[in-house]
Design a protein that fits this description.
alpha/beta, 14% strand, binds phosphoenolpyruvate, binds magnesium ion
Length: 562
């Protein structure tokens, strides 16, 4: 049996192939000094290298903009900012002029100081900045010492890239035809690299610990990006299993295409709403081609995470309008910013918290960024003029919170009316992703137009298990009866007050999860695009009455022992 390593799922898909371990370029910067009369020369060399690095980064940004869109290209802004950072520049020049160091040595020392300040932090937002700093360091030093920048797309044979971490610029230079998958030691689900891997449809697992130290190039790997697992040197049986699954998946994909124009109706005639979750506007084309019933969750964090400045209303409006137009006449559910936890924009002062997932998260953060939230609501109302739009608010826990959101909505509506700006009608919904929201769903439902259950967070809050901790993944149990009971409760309350309910967490993209949800009375699911057709096939094979009676037995409602 091969060795199984558990990491954090970052981009779905199963691949098999040899590892290609990318080690950071060996930038041997010897401790060297220069005579005082050469100080000026070193300063000039430093500026030239820095300016050339800026030009290269700007070029990468243009390339990414063409490939993935202008919003994604903004991930290079933090690097450009670092290259212009007076602290980094002045510090380097001081080392050159006061200690007579060479430009490369002076710059390395300054970067080291920056990095050591940040490395103590475990906050995802800071860790993402370290990846940017590494990129910047390599780019400047390779120019100073004429080293070759490593290019992960150089692999001749298709391979699974293994690295401590891949910098955003390495990811965007990857040729998807030659890179089967990505496995990194560091990284978070929301790091730029993970988001880019998802956009490029490259399966990826991050947060694998010391994986890149334990694997050599050429070793065979199986990587499962949906489950966050990698198998090192799999046995023949595992390889066969993988091969069979791979062949089946390919055949399945071909076979599944016929399902596009067919309704998601169970064997006994129950129509299940099948929607798609989007992370980026670019995902909308795929969702539309799958002929889903709509977008059940359009995450909007791509507009802010990793960005050095807040997006203005116009930029948000353009992104929302794009998706709404592509999906029209189908509804698009735009979720307002879900920040906090492991996602915090660079342009906000960092919040140091003992328990970020129990702290400033979801809609609570709007209190800290009222202008940004207000601009988002205005942008959504404007986008609603182009199609059917629903606003979904994350981490709602009380009626007062919903009232607060409604007030912002009403204000934005009135403003736009007064300004003569075209806007559309929107429905307002609440995510049910905490036990509290489900416990009061019968009351909350009188104040919202729809519910969406976020099982990813609900599991972590019901079971008290950190969703991002790979070591606890066995405890993060999608099928735990406590979770199922909560969902059943949410369905009952929603029915009681006549509010439509959808499930948009990963449970909806999981085959057994979807069957259990339908057995609990859920009639609308929103899945990641690459699970949509498979889920439709599954739904068409289900018998709702059988599932319902199975769930009753499973949760012991028939015996009254709840
Ligand atoms: C969820 O919590 O299930 C959800 C859909 O939201 P996110 O994964 O973005 O927190
Ligand atoms: Mg959530």
């Amino acid at each position: 049996m091969g060795e199984l390593v558990q990491g954090i799922p970052a981009s779905p898909g199963i691949v098999f192939g040899p590892a290609r371990v990318i080690r950071p370029p060996v930038l041997n910067v010897a401790h060297a000094t220069v005579p005082p009369e050469q100080v000026e020369v070193e300063v000039v060399r430093f500026h030239q290298a820095r300016e050339s690095a800026i030009a290269h980064t700007a070029e990468l940004r243009t390339r990414v903009s063409g490939r993935l869109g202008a919003v994604q290209a903004k991930i290079f802004d933090p690097q450009l900012m670092m290259l212009e950072d007076p602290d980094l520049i002045e510090g380097t020049i001081t080392y050159i002029s006061d200690s007579f160091l060479t430009a490369e040595r002076a710059f390395s020392l300054r970067v080291l100081e920056f990095r050591s300040q940040w490395l103590d932090a475990t906050h995802a937002r800071v860790m993402d900045r370290v990846a940017d700093l590494n990129d910047v360091q390599t780019r400047v030093l390779t120019r100073l010492i004429e080293a070759i920048e490593s290019d992960p797309s150089e692999a001749e044979e298709p391979a699974i890239l293994v690295a401590r971490e891949l910098t955003p610029s390495q990811i965007v230079e990857i040729d998807p035809d030659r890179v089967l998958g990505i496995a990194t030691d560091a990284g978070t689900r929301t790091a730029h690299a993970s988001i880019l891997a998802r956009s490029l449809k490259i399966p990826a697992v991050v947060g694998l610990g010391d994986f890149s130290q334990r694997v050599e190039s050429g070793v065979e790997l199986i990587l499962d990006g949906r489950r966050g697992k990698v198998v090192i040197d799999p046995s023949e049986t595992e390889k066969h299993k993988f091969h069979d699954r791979h062949v089946k998946a390919k055949e399945n994909a071909k076979e599944l295409a016929y399902l596009k124009g067919i309704e998601a109706t169970t064997k006994d005639g129950t129509r299940i709403g099948l929607h798609a979750n989007l992370e980026l506007p670019a995902d909308a084309e795929e969702a539309a081609s799958l002929e889903v019933d709509g977008v059940g969750l359009f995450r909007t964090e791509f507009l802010v995470v990793g960005k050095t400045s807040a997006p203005d209303e116009e930029e948000q409006y353009e992104a929302f309008k794009q998706v709404v137009e592509i999906m029209a006449p189908r509804p698009v559910t735009i979720r307002t910013f879900d920040l906090g936890g492991d996602k915090f924009p660079l342009f906000l002062p960092p919040i140091i918290e003992e328990n970020p997932f129990l702290g400033w998260r979801g809609m609570r953060v709007y209190e800290l960024i009222p202008e940004l939230f207000h601009s988002q609501v205005r942008a959504i109302l404007r986008a609603a003029a182009h199609g059917l739009v629903r606003i979904l608010v994350p981490m709602v826990n009380s009626v007062e919170e919903v009232r607060g959101i409604r007030a912002v909505l009403d204000k934005a509506r009135a403003e736009l009316r007064e300004e003569g700006v075209t806007q559309g009608e929107v429905l307002l919904g609440a995510m049910l992703e905490t036990p509290a929201s489900i416990a009061i769903a019968d009351v909350l439902g009188r104040h919202v137009d729809f519910f969406s259950i976020g099982t990813n967070d609900l599991i972590q809050y019901v079971l008290a298990v950190d969703r991002g901790n790979a070591q606890l993944s066995d405890y993060y149990d999608l099928y735990h009866p406590a979770l199922l009971r909560y969902i059943r409760e949410a369905v009952r309350s929603a029915e009681q007050v006549g509010v439509p309910l959808c499930v948009c967490g990963e449970a909806a993209s999981d085959p057994l999860g979807a069957a259990l949800l339908i057995g609990l009375g859920v009639r609308s699911l929103s899945c990641t695009p690459n699970a949509v057709l498979e889920q439709k096939k599954l739904i068409r094979s289900l018998d709702v009455r059988q599932l319902e009676s199975f769930m009753k037995k499973l949760l012991k409602t028939e015996t009254g022992k709840e």
